[in-house]
Write a structure and sequence with these properties.
Helices cover 44% and strands 14% of the residues. By secondary structure, it is an alpha/beta fold. The protein has two domains: 252 residues, Aldolase class I (TIM Barrel), CATH 3.20.20.70; 69 residues, Non-ribosomal Peptide Synthetase Peptidyl Carrier Protein, Chain A, CATH 1.10.1200.80. It binds flavin mononucleotide.
Length: 356
């Protein structure tokens, strides 16, 4: 992509139904990952919209306490998209109603999840085999849902059924306000590559905003996706895990600035904020468990991070974890604040995928 095209601003305000987002840069719903603390951090770093992980419509409709916990929110993250999954139109409608009563600013319907336990109930990606059911579900939720309604989907069930455009037209017909497309087949799960050409095709078929998603691993790839597909927004999943700065970096690049990767002090500040929000949400013991996994992501690609990982195994309490992180960070920082260890020979783990 040339210099001049980089100067174009892509991430301006985006309207979805009656809602105006500050930008069209979104964090993808990710089960077990996009909990309230992570969503707040993504928002602090520039994301225009965050979403809950998929929530069982049956659980919401039955008002199960365990399911309700996923609806816990905070003003900082608003507007909030609540994603629901299910296969029964009336249950989905009831779940949508419950989500709105609990404060959802948008309701999103999952039509792409490849997990077996979801598929076997006819929900998630299984819906792509039943366009009539798609129609019934979107219409039923639309009828009761006073906030913007969106659908997140994939290319189709399997390579012989590329139905994304049909599905997009159906959901637009039934009153959805936007569609997000992760252009892989359900049967592919996460293998192969996202086929961005499908995003461009769907965009040409509908009038509602189309959000592109899949394999955006770096700030420049977000701009590439917009440019190559004409999509109205970009949704980022895996690349934001342990790297929520990606949102700020994309917005910087979009303004023609050099993306600002986090300095160590800022990385530390956000990690500690993440710790603290997790502790508030789930108590110290569980927060420590979750943070153990997240710290590996937060230090991915830093110099000698594999050495840190080694030192880190077996630590179970937050204080010791923070002390180990501080020891590692101070090793990285000379008095000038510049890392003094040589970079790991194994560089960024996602680079293989990035070459795609
Ligand atoms: C751990 C994990 C959990 C996910 N959970 C959900 C989910 O709850 N709902 C959903 O619509 N997609 C879910 N996804 C898919 C992502 O939202 C996204 O579509 C996919 O990761 C592709 O985007 P990416 O290449 O930017 O990661 C999940 C993905 C991952 C890796």
């Amino acid at each position: 992509m040339g210099f001049w095209t980089r100067l174009t601003h892509h991430f301006h305000m985006l309207r979805i139904g009656a809602l105006t987002l500050r930008n069209g840069l979104m964090m993808a719903p990710m089960s077990g990952i996009t909990n309230l603390p992570f969503r707040r951090i993504a928002k602090r770093l520039g994301a225009g919209l965050v979403a809950t992980e998929m929530i069982s419509a049956v659980g919401l409709a039955r008002r199960q306490e365990k399911t309700f916990r996923y609806l816990k929110s905070d003003p900082e993250e608003r507007p909030l998209s609540v994603q629901i999954f299910g296969s029964d139109p009336q249950v989905m409608a009831e779940a949508g109603r419950v989500a709105v009563d609990a404060g959802a600013d948008l309701v999103d319907i999952n039509m792409g999840c490849p997990a077996r336990k979801v598929i076997k109930t006819g929900a998630g990606g299984a819906l792509l085999r039943s366009p009539d059911r798609v129609r019934a579900i979107v219409s039923a939720v639309r009828a009761v849902c006073p906030v913007p309604l969106t659908v997140k989907t994939r290319t189709g069930w399997s390579a012989d059924q590329p139905v994304a455009s049909d599905i997009a037209r159906i959901v637009e017909d039934c009153g959805a306000d936007a569609i997000t497309l992760h252009p892989r087949f359900v049967a592919q799960r996460f293998s192969g590559q996202a086929d961005w050409g499908i995003i461009a095709h769907v965009k040409s078929q509908v009038g509602i905003p189309v959000i592109g998603n899949g394999d955006v691993w770096s700030p420049s790839r977000a701009l590439d996706m917009m440019q190559q597909t004409g999509c109205d927004g970009v949704m980022i999943g895996r690349a934001a895990i342990g790297n929520p700065w990606i949102f700020r970096e994309i917005l910087d690049l979009d303004k023609g600035l050099n993306p600002r990767p986090p300095e160590l002090w800022e990385r530390r500040k956000i990690i500690l904020a993440h710790f603290s929000l997790l502790t508030d949400l789930m108590g110290e013991e569980r927060a420590a468990k979750v943070m153990r996994g997240l710290l590996l992501y937060y230090t991915k690609g830093l110099p000698c991070s594999s050495r840190f990982r080694g030192a880190f195994t077996g630590i179970n309490d937050l204080d010791t974890m923070i002390a180990a992180m501080d020891a590692y960070f101070s090793l990285l920082t000379g008095s000038s604040g510049i890392p003094i260890l040589r970079p790991d020979p194994v560089a960024h783990p996602t680079s293989a995928e990035e070459q795609s």
